[in-house]
């Protein structure tokens, strides 16, 4: 792993894992993304911040095509995700390609979205078994290791509804880890949690960041974004208003809107 | 006293009574088969109603809207007859001479070769299909509603992990749908059980028909025991049978519900 310094967050030579080019997305008359480009390189943690409605969740969901951008391209490991049609009619161009690419993107949702009818262990094993078609014994060993890693190995046979929110979100992280993802996508992973449960989830995410995993993170938590990120992107009304290293964005804020936003966030 | 008991045991195990007891199998078969078909038609109807293609959606909506409104007795009479005659007509076009078909006026079918004789078993199958079609329309609505009750986020998560549409449908969507559908489906099942008392309409010698025959007054010693109208006693036995089936069904549905609801229903939490 290449070591990173705060002042030189973009590692020269590290390959682009996620690359977004000029993304536009509207919901009806509401234009949510107005042309956004950014790149997350191997080993980088990129945080998306901004007020609600700034388009940060939509942007994240465009990476694995849960939302299909009206315009613009998404590349994963340099491979262009095929789309056909234009504008709001745009749709997946190649079902096999998108399923293969999605099976390498570990998404963690705000509301966990664990499959309620499966135990925690079954949740973690499901995608490796039926999407990646890996061996059951190997997957189970992996899954248990991941559950241990996030600290809920003892809950493997419980159902999601029997766990606290923090445990559920850690189970969801284990589920994402078990597919050996190229990149982890976090969509406000702690927003649905009580403050005392947030800590345990943040600790796990920090652990993954320190391992050098590539991650794109949408978050409300400015302190966390500052401590975990290599790069911070501030979205405002569907455009990138400011971006840079955490020290630049939080320590030497240029944009008036970002100053205002950070001010409001610190009083929340 | 002992003679009395011996007499009644003998009477209740005579040929006619044994046939009556045996006829319960028709009722049970029709209920189980009809119920299974209703679920199959219900799943098909709900899938059609959820389809992205407008013609499929129309067929699904038309089926659940129209067939639910047709009285089951009427459909019971209509469907097997229509099906039989349609088959006979198709066979007739193949095996009867053109002259016979052209000359066809009163007799049906046009020639003897095209005649399709239906025995009890064929009628049972047709009855089950009729039950399945009528109650499948109800099941369509129940399942359609249950499909929409499955949390959308879980389906989205399944897609996000690379599952195909079919995998999402079978591994997540339908698997969780049962929890929301079972209360409604248990109602449909009860209606099917009730409708099995209509089997005699299709000339099946079922439990109702035999209860009628056995209970009918008899004044001829040569025919058997002389007694007046005993039908209410036999009907009472049918009451008990249907109540027993209801009780068993509720227990079975309770067990299925606990199994399907594991992790989803709050009762299931330890």
From TrEMBL, chain B:
Primary location: membrane
Pfam family, one: BPD_transp_1
One cellular component (GO) term of this entry: plasma membrane
Mode of membrane association: Multi-pass membrane protein
Boundaries of every ABC transmembrane type-1 domain copy: 24-253
Location within or outside the cell: Cell membrane
One GO biological process term: transmembrane transport
Transmembrane segments: 20-46, 58-79, 116-138, 188-211, 231-249
Sorted UniProt keywords: Membrane, Transmembrane, Transmembrane helix, Transport
Alphabetical list of InterPro entries matching this protein: ABC_transp_permease_HisMQ, MetI-like, MetI-like_sf
The family this protein is said to belong to: Belongs to the binding-protein-dependent transport system permease family.
Protein name: ABC transporter permease
Organism encoding this protein: Devosia elaeis
């Amino acid at each position: 792993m290449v070591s990173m310094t705060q002042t030189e967050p973009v590692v020269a030579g590290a390959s682009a894992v996620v690359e977004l080019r000029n993304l536009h997305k509207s919901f009806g008359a509401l234009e949510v993304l107005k042309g956004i480009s950014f790149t997350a390189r191997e080993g980088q943690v990129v945080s998306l911040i901004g007020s609600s409605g700034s388009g940060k969740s939509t942007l994240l969901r465009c990476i694995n095509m849960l939302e299909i951008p009206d315009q613009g391209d998404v590349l994963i490991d340099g491979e262009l995700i095929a789309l056909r049609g234009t504008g709001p009619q745009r749709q997946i161009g190649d079902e096999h390609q998108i399923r293969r690419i999605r099976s390498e993107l570990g998404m963690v949702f705000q509301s966990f979205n664990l499959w309620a009818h499966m135990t925690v262990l079954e949740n973690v094993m499901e995608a490796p078994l039926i999407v990646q078609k890996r061996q059951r014994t190997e997957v189970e060993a992996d899954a248990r290791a991941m559950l241990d890693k996030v600290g809920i190995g003892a809950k493997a046979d419980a159902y999601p509804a029997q766990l606290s929110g923090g445990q559920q979100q850690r189970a969801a992280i284990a589920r994402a880890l078990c597919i050996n993802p190229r990149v982890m996508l976090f969509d406000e992973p702690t927003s649905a949690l009580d403050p005392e449960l947030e800590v345990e989830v943040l600790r796990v995410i920090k652990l993954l960041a320190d391992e050098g995993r590539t991650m794109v993170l949408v978050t409300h938590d400015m302190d966390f974004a500052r401590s975990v990120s290599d790069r911070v992107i501030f979205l405002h009304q569907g455009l990138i208003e400011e971006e840079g290293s955490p020290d630049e964005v939080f320590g030497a804020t240029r944009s008036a809107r970002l100053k205002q936003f950070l001010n409001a966030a610190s009083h929340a | 006293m002992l003679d009395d008991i011996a007499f009644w045991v003998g009477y209740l195990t005579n040929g006619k009574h044994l046939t009556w007891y045996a006829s319960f199998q028709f009722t049970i078969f029709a209920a189980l088969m009809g119920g299974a078909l209703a679920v199959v038609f219900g799943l098909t109807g709900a899938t059609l109603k959820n389809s992205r293609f407008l013609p499929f959606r129309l067929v699904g909506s038309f089926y659940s809207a129209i067939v639910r409104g047709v009285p089951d007795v009427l459909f019971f009479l209509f469907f097997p007859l229509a099906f039989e005659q349609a088959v006979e007509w198709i066979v007739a076009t193949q095996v009867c001479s053109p002259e016979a078909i052209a000359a066809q006026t009163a007799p049906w079918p046009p020639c003897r070769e095209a005649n399709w004789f239906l025995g009890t078993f064929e009628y049972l199958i047709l009855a089950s299909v009729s039950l399945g079609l009528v109650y499948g329309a109800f099941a369509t609505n129940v399942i359609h509603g249950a499909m929409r009750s499955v949390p959308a986020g879980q389906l989205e998560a399944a897609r996000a992990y690379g599952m195909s549409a079919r995998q999402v449908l079978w591994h997540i969507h339908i698997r969780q749908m049962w929890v929301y559908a079972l209360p409604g489906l248990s109602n449909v099942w009860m209606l099917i059980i009730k409708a099995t008392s209509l089997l005699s309409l299709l000339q099946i010698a079922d439990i109702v028909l035999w209860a009628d025959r056995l209970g009918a007054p008899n004044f001829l010693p040569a025919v058997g025991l002389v007694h007046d109208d005993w039908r209410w006693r036999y009907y009472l036995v049918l009451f008990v049978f249907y109540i027993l089936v209801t009780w068993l069904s509720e227990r079975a549905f309770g067990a299925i519900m606990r199994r399907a609801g594991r992790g989803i229903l709050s009762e299931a939490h330890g």
